[in-house]
Amino acid sequence: GLIVGMAWISSNSQWTIMLLTAGGIFTLYLVLRFHYPWRDRLSLLATYALSVTLGSFAGLVQLWPAYVYAALSGRSGGLSYAEATVGALWPTDFVRFILPSFSLPFLASGETLYLGALTLLLLIIGWRTPSVGIKKFFAWLLMGCILISVKFSPLFWIISQLPGYRYFRGPSRWMFLGYFSIAVLAGFGLKAIAEAKGPVAKETVVRIYRWLIGGIVALVILGWFFLHFFGNKMLNFLTAFCDDHLFNEANGVALEFYNKVIYQAFEQLRGIISWHNPLFIWPFLFLLISLVFLWSMKRYNLSSKWVVRLITVIMIGNFGLVTGGYFYTASAKSVF
Predict the structure, then answer these.
(1) CA 239 from centroid of its chain's CA atoms
(2) Listed residue (93, 193, 184, 87) closest to 140, CA to CA
(3) Residue 145: its pLDDT value, please?
(4) Other beta carbons less than 10 A from residue 46's beta carbon
(5) Which end of the chain has less neighbouring CB within 10 Å, N or C?
């Protein structure tokens, strides 16, 4: 109850509600999935309900003013579906799991979804390991978070109609729970590698993934080549095509407006692969490092012990150098 109360007081109410929702579903899963005595099941449900109730009473100092002010704001009565779905993910956004600078014009949410190539590999391996009770729950939780987060999600529409949830927006925020599920599943993947009896590099999923990452690296280099050497010609072609075939004076919008939109969209596309942008350089560098590592696993027939060690080192460097560019930081001196 104390932890729940601190969550209400110290964080945004939406995050707390998402956490309590996931906690409630997990409690129900434990009750229904495992064959405990009914007394223990009811005790588990009662303990969770009592913790949430007591914590919510402690959090009234934060909840009551928020409720009063919400009734006086534009959120009184809840948000419309269009307002609530601001920031929902497009399917193309998931490319940012390994290339965080990837942002297609008109088809991007702007959310940071970076995992890294090796984390994604561990997630896939963990997903494919034999299902045990806890792993199965987090696999379903991840699938649910992804389905809630995407554009035009019927699951998010259902949630947005529930009392309490209609005041919140941002479907992609549910990936907050999805990332935790990814961490758990990646842990299962790392455990599976550590316990592997044969060479990890010969596993089918590793061999396919190695070629997949190689193909992505090749596409990035090819995309840079065309955008760097033929970018201006491509932009001129698109502008001329719009002027000749798409522009219509009857709608009253000036031709310069369309040309500006095309130019900005093309520059955004060109900015995806920019060697002057550290938000592209570092992820691409670690993509290359991951590719070299995956091929080294095969060439040198690395043992499971060395695979686990090298993956850990690469992932620590990866997150330390990549994610720092996407989050605001403050020096200790300025804070204290």
Answers:
(1) 34
(2) 184
(3) 92
(4) 10
(5) C
**Ramachandran area for residue 213 (φ above 0: left; ψ -120 to 50: alpha; else beta):** alpha
Q: How far apart are CA 321 and CA 116, in angstroms?
A: 11
Distance between CA atoms of 184 and 190, rounded to whole angstroms?
A: 10
pLDDT digits (tens, 9 = 90+) for 167-207: 788 888 888 899 999 999 999 999 888 888 777 767 778 88
Cα gap 180→137, rounded to integer Å: 12
pTM of the model: 0.84
Which residues sit opposite 89 in a β-bridge? 150
Query: Quick one: tokens of 131?
Result: 């299902």
**77 vs 97: CA distance, rounded Å:** 36
Residues 6+ away with beta carbon under 8 Å from 282: 321, 322, 325
C-alpha distance from residue 67 to each of 2, 51, 64, 199, 308 (Å): 21, 21, 5, 58, 49
- Contact indicator for 118, 178 with CB cutoff of 8 Å: no
Beta bridge partners of residue 150, listed in sequence order: 89
Query: Rounded to 5 degrees, what are φ and ψ at 74?
Result: -70, -10
Contact 290, 319 (CB under 8 A): no
Residue 227 CA to residue 31 CA, distance in Å, equals 56
Query: Tokens representing 47?
Result: 């303990």
Render pLDDT for 297-336 as a digit per residue (tens, 0 to 9): 888 888 888 888 999 999 988 888 887 666 555 555 654 5
Q: Which of 265, 293, 281 is nearest to 220 (CA)?
A: 281
Taking the C-alpha atoms of residue 235 and residue 242, their distance in angstroms, rounded to an integer, is 11
